[in-house]
Write a structure and sequence with these properties.
Strand content of chain B: under 5%
CATH topology of the largest domain in chain B: MetI-like fold
Largest interface: A-B, 102 and 101 residues
CATH class of the largest domain in chain B: Mainly Alpha
Order of helices and strands of chain A: HHHEHHHHHHHHHH
Oligomer: heterodimer
Helix content of chain A: over 70%
Order of helices and strands of chain B: HEHHHHHHHHHHHHH
Strand content of chain A: under 5%
Shape of chain A: flat
CATH superfamily of the largest domain in chain B: MetI-like
Number of helices of chain B: 14
Largest sheet of chain A: none
Number of strands of chain B: 1
Radius of gyration of chain B: 23 Å
Shape of chain B: globular
Structural class of chain B: mainly alpha
Chain lengths: 287, 279
């Protein structure tokens, strides 16, 4: 036995245990206070007066109309956005044309525009006091304070989601497989459905998932454009605001809890996709 | 159309169709509305625009939106970096769960976050009651706006920095240690410089999102003119008064701020690509 006391090795590529534990602890506290506390509050407040009151709140005609409205909007806006995203990704990744970088910046633009400003733009373009809006209203097709306006506002705020996810994936996959399919005599559509689509399906699903979450949850742009007419143009998030401002706390938080559950479902599906298909998603690509 | 726009020929079909769909949707959804706002601005004229913007209430609102976004994004810069580091480098129970939870602010509708934060921090809420003896009031003050924007901006910093930490080469840290650097020195002089572009990008993304944020803020802010009234809310108020010109003026000011930040983000990414080849 040697007399030299063996000191534990000093870590050189990580931090000392004390600092590690401190940072982990701090992170957990931070996440608990800033993320989990608000989430839990939604459900606590929804159930504050017992299950009966919560169920009654869901039966309110205004709440039901808002739920139907939100589902309808998402059912229209998300497919349009998916088709746009696929078309944009195809044009941008399969061809070389002038102004491509500028085009990508334009597609990204809605992410950095305030939702309220987005709503304002639609009001200025299609509102009753604009030339185009006045003409559309005279012909029985009002956009602002009506259904089409909400769809357009939703399309604006969700605009980059699918394209943003597909473009990096399709750049990485290149054009060789499609070119081979065409050389072997496949038609353009057949090439797309049997070669391209299987390659991008998980990325597409991922983009659609994020797009759908935002479509159902958008507040600012929709609040401005919809006019928040009960039973007609009120969506779930705008109905949450109206209930809340009328001090109908349980009703507001019940509708909010439904939205929160949708958000949790989105996170769950998103995590599953990230764990299963990380290599096929732009967001989680590991080299 | 194909020959005119394409830079080089491609054997693949569908350029006309896909380009057509893209430009049609882009025009209707994004370009026409932006054109309508800018066109309105041109009709009003720069002198009158300036006249409309030059009021104490609007300057208070614009500077509040920017200041609160800046403070919240700086806070997120520090805590987002910590969270990203802990999630990548340390193994602990519940790590994957926390990792998934970081995206909650992306998934949770802003109005839901807004009323939940207000319920928590209101004087009779759980956090509100806990902070009252310390003399801190969060709800209906500017601090409340900071809290809402911290919630909104957090994922931007974490999700931008996380992949870069994952790709850090261990040898760099080993070399640094072998050459006699203490861990703190390695972190400061080797790791932090590598993370700087990603940190700046995440910070700028969080800032851009926070400046225009509306849903999560208006419930907790109290919305007192000149004090806790954010710029987007002022647009909504002007629209409800059917004062479209005044709303357009504020909207244009905010759009210019957005464009400036978009340019800044692009510049940071170009700079970082040139410097270390990482985005």
């Amino acid at each position: 036995m040697s007399d030299i006391a063996l000191t534990p090795p000093v870590p050189v590529t990580t931090e000392p245990v004390l600092i590690r534990s401190l940072l982990i602890g701090l992170s957990l506290v931070f996440v608990a206070l800033f993320l989990f506390a608000p989430l839990v509050t939604v459900f606590v407040e929804a159930l504050r007066q017992g299950w009966g009151a919560t169920v009654d709140a869901l039966r309110l005609p205004d709440a039901q109309a808002a739920i139907r409205m939100t589902l309808t909007i998402a059912a229209i806006a998300v497919p349009i956005n998916a088709v746009f995203g696929i078309a944009a990704a195809w044009a941008i990744t399969k061809f070389d044309f002038r102004g491509k970088a500028f085009l990508i910046t334009l597609i990204d633009l809605p992410f950095s525009v305030s939702p309220v400003v987005a709503g304002l733009m639609l009001v200025l373009l299609f509102g009753a006091n604009s030339t185009l809006g006045g003409w559309l209203i005279a012909n029985g097709m009002p956009i602002v304070f009506a259904f089409p306006g909400i769809v357009l506002a939703t399309l604006f705020v969700t605009f980059p989601f699918v394209a943003r996810e597909l473009i990096p994936v399709m750049i990485e996959q290149g054009r060789a497989e499609e070119e081979a399919a065409l050389t072997l005599g496949a038609s353009g559509w057949r090439t797309f459905f049997t070669v391209t689509l299987p390659n991008i399906r998980w990325a597409l699903l991922y983009g659609v998932l994020l797009c759908n979450a935002r479509a159902m949850g958008e507040f600012g742009a929709v609040a401005v454009v919809s006019g928040k007419i009960r039973g007609e143009t009120a969506t779930m998030p705008t109905m949450v605001e109206m209930f809340y401002n009328e001090y109908l706390s349980v009703a507001a938080f019940t509708l909010a809890a439904v939205l929160a559950m949708l958000a949790l479902l989105t996170l769950l599906l998103k995590s599953l996709l990230e764990w299963r298909h990380a290599d096929l998603l732009a967001a989680t690509r590991r080299h | 159309m194909r020959a005119g726009i394409l830079r080089s020929p491609s054997p693949l079909p569908g350029f006309g169709l896909s380009f057509g769909i893209m430009m049609t949707v882009l025009s209707i959804v994004v370009l026409l509305p932006i054109g309508a706002l800018l066109g309105r601005g041109l009709m009003i004229g720069p002198a009158d625009l300036w006249e409309m913007l030059n009021s104490r209430r609007i300057w208070s609102a614009l500077s509040l939106s920017f200041r609160a976004a800046l403070i919240a994004s700086l806070f997120n810069l520090v805590f987002g970096l910590m969270l990203a580091w802990v999630l990548v480098r340390y193994r602990f129970w519940g790590r994957r769960f926390i990792d998934a939870a970081v995206d909650l602010p992306f998934a949770l509708p802003t109005a839901v976050a807004g009323i939940a934060l207000t319920a928590l921090y209101a004087p009779n809420g759980v956090f509100g009651q806990a902070l009252a003896p310390l003399g801190l009031q969060v709800a209906y003050t500017e601090v409340g706006i900071w809290v809402a924007l911290v919630f909104i901006g957090l994922p931007f910093v974490v999700r931008t920095v996380q992949p870069v930490i994952e790709e850090l080469e261990a040898d760099l840290e080993e070399v640094s240690a072998t050459l006699g650097a203490r861990r703190a020195y390695t972190l400061r002089r080797v790791i932090l410089p590598t993370l700087t572009p990603a940190l700046l990008t995440g910070f700028a993304l969080a800032l851009a999102r926070s400046v225009g944020e509306y849903g999560s803020v208006i419930f907790i802010a109290g919305n007192i003119p000149n004090l806790t009234e954010i710029a987007p809310l002022l647009i909504v108020i002007r629209l409800e008064e059917y004062n479209y010109d005044a709303a357009a003026a504020i909207g244009i000011a905010m759009l210019i701020i957005s464009f400036a930040m978009l340019l800044a983000i692009n510049a940071i990414q170009t700079w970082s690509r040139r410097r270390i080849g990482l985005v």
